[in-house]
Design a protein that fits this description.
The protein is an alpha+beta fold. It contains seven helices and twelve strands. About 30% of the residues are buried.
Length: about 280
């Protein structure tokens, strides 16, 4: 079973210049590839789960999650002054499937994690500490709620890391196939109808209709089956996802839930069709 590790980031010591762009890309389903310091840890293996903790400045908390795609390897130290002296650091190549920009989205706060898991050091002095399996299970659920939608992904070889708790969480490596399903859903919908219309009954929002050329080809793609409802590994198909607008997507997952599309907008709602966003 893959292990889970906590990486750290202090903006006072290193500036993530592309954070805002990377957060937007991850929200659209892109994988963000980064090389990150693993401290003194050499045990990280490809396929291990990674969480990134922002320290040093508020808001402090987890801002990204992903998977290791390499073992730790030495390279010039990330601190320019130390690098000039010939110092090195260990780095792990990572693929982050979700990145939050603290300027626009609240991280999973350290205070919240300390309240739920008081025995784990959520403000470590170094990057790359291993998170015990029993803590990792709860962390996945808390992060899924905070990030807006729990991660559902499929590996190239269909290996699944399963964890038992109050619910079964299926966490698997990489999001590449999920991204292909998202792209295919958008392409097939445009080919069939010529438009991307929110599939929530009584919504019908169309980004292109509202915003013109800048909204052409854009929509959110929502997973109809929440992570906790899955009893076994399964591929994501076009029938498992739906075209939705940003507002409906937010309402579906408000409070960490996964509400059905039917009934999301009340029948007696005063909102006109297509005005939900």
């Amino acid at each position: 079973m893959p292990a889970t590790y906590l990486l750290t980031w202090n903006p006072n010591r290193w500036t993530w210049d592309t954070l805002a762009r990377d957060a937007r890309r991850s929200a659209e389903g892109d994988i963000i590839k980064e090389r990150w310091s693993s401290g003194n840890t050499k045990r990280i293996a490809p396929g291990d789960r990674l969480f990134l903790m922002r320290l040093g400045v508020e808001p402090r908390g987890i801002v990204a999650s992903g998977w290791a795609i390499s073992v730790p390897r030495p390279g010039p130290h990330w601190d320019a002054d130390r690098a000039e002296k010939g110092d090195t650091a260990l780095y792990v190549d990572a693929e982050f499937e979700r990145v939050l920009d603290p300027e626009v989205a609240t991280p999973l706060a350290i205070k919240e994690l300390e309240r739920v898991f008081p025995d784990f050091p959520w403000s470590p002095q170094a990057s790359g500490i291993e998170i015990p399996a029993e803590v990792a299970v709860g962390l996945e659920g808390a992060w899924g709620s905070r990030a807006g939608e729990a991660v559902l992904a499929v590996t190239d070889d269909l290996e699944v890391a399963g964890y038992e708790g109050q619910v079964r969480l299926l966490v698997v490596r990489h999001r590449r196939r999920e991204q292909r399903v998202r792209t295919a859903k958008i392409e097939t919908t445009i080919a069939a109808t010529g438009r991307l219309i929110c599939e929530v009954p009584r919504c019908g929002f169309d980004f292109e209709q509202r915003y013109g050329a800048v909204g052409r080809g854009f929509a959110h793609v929502h997973h109809l089956k929440p992570l906790a409802s899955l009893e076994a590994p399964r591929l994501t198909t076009l029938a498992d996802v739906a075209i939705v607008c940003a507002n409906c997507h937010a309402m579906v997952h408000l409070g960490g839930l996964c509400r059905p599309l039917e009934g999301l907008i009340p029948i007696d709602s005063s909102l006109a069709a297509g005005s939900a966003s």
